[in-house]
Amino acid sequence: MRRVTALATTAATLATLGLTSLGLGPGGTVAPSAYAAPAAKQVRVSDGCVSSVPEPGESDAVDICYSLFRPAGASRKRPVPMIVHSHGWGGSRTTDPAAFDTFLDAGYGVLSFDQRGWGESGGHAHVEDPAFEGHDVRRLVRLVSRLRWVQQDRPGDPRLGAIGGSYGGGYQLLGAFESLRTQGRPVFDALAPQITWNDLSSSLAPEGVVRTEWALLLAAASVPDDALPPTVYKALLEGAALGQWPDGSVPGTEDMVAFMEKNGPAWHVANGRRLDIPVLLGQGTTDGLFPLQEGLANWRTALTKRARRDSIFVGYNGGHVLPAVLPMGVSITSDPCSAELAGGDFEQLSLRFFDEQLRGRRTGLRGYGRLHIATPTDECLTTRTERTNHRVDIGTVATSTAAGVPLGTLVAEGPIEVAGSAYLTADVTAAGVENRAFYGLAVGTSPLDARLVQNNVLPLREPLPVVGERRRIQLPAVGVRVPAGQNLYLLASPFSETFVGMSSRTPGVIVLEDTVLHLRRTGPGRA
């Protein structure tokens, strides 16, 4: 208990230092800017709440509260599409119409709502559970379907787009999948989710190794609003204290694997569902909570092939970002791909995307059916797929597991251009129990000055001793153009500050033999 209390104090400290990072994108926000010019006077604003399903074990309905913005000229004779918006974790709805000027001035209605457990809404946050938040989103869609000034495709089916990042991206995918599951069609006509997840357990605790900094921040962010169910708050602290994701196997601990099983696109995909609607996916390349590969997994698995032809993927430098010092990463916030595609930021790109997908207007928008990924040097790389197409034999990689410094192994000399997924295959030997090491791609002139391409590493975890076992080791997805005079390295480290306290439980060495790096090479790069 003393250990958990200490971690709770650490969580509060981290929240003070970094809470504003929750839900951030390039330029500091994924929501429309709070500093936009004043909205048109003709915009009508109304506030209200809808009743949704009770909390577990309770009988009283839960209020889900919203602010509704009706643009100038919208009427029964001139109905307009609606854009739904919601906030990131620890936030609340936007009530100032000036924040939505971009969409309101373009003639879209906007509905911004407090998610369950946050703001003025009741209940607890079940982290986008179909049984709770899924009902909440459906109740809001029902509300919109009864507004005479909103364009309707059929009874109960309004013309809908959606915006928001992090937790505000999770509700979008949840809402579309839930209406697909319950009604046979997604109801939402186009989405623009940013820096959100595919599978919560794999993003919060890859290989069962907890992203400690983020688990503590998420727990701390829920305290002021009493947003989380007590069992989930307890489980986040248990994960940080015990060194692995709670799965109920330790007596007296919670089961987060079961709690989060259905809370993301991965569950719907596993049950045979894919979205057949256009999606503008924005993901942070330097995101330490929901990394680039979470967005790539949504692109690859959550959308049909036809939907991908009408969709766009943008990776930008930003997201949920904390300083990357151990191992050393990069520090950059930029969105060159939105600028290249739309001549502006992600919000401007979203507007043009919705104009084409919700209104059928031709705006000259390019980039459909492609992945556009920012590099740490503020360039934009474009590729048709994130799947690997190149392999490099790099031999033996040995890593101490409890102490030592990160070690770099040469992969390739520049110039080389890489964009997409990456992984290792290797024969693994580890003598200890709960041996762990962390791997990522880095760029520098030598192993001594090499920096992680996009601030991320992923763990290899061996719970029991192994000798020569062939493993597939996932690496963080990347976008990078390595110039002449610099090199691409595989960086192996015994620790990571993102996974603070998650290093090996026993000292020793993890040895990878006959190691092969698989990556997507998109071009030779520029000298």
TrEMBL record:
Range of residues in the leader sequence: none
Pfam family, one: Peptidase_S15
Molecular-function annotations in GO: ATP binding
InterPro entries: AB_hydrolase_fold (IPR029058), FrsA_esterase (IPR050261), Xaa-Pro-like_dom (IPR000383)
Residues annotated as domain Xaa-Pro dipeptidyl-peptidase-like: 62-312
Gene3D superfamilies, A to Z: alpha/beta hydrolase
Top-level taxon: Bacteria
Keywords, comma-separated and alphabetical: ATP-binding, Hydrolase, Nucleotide-binding
Keyword S-adenosyl-L-methionine included in the entry's annotation: no
Family affiliation: Belongs to the AB hydrolase superfamily.
Protein name: ABC-2 type transport system ATP-binding protein
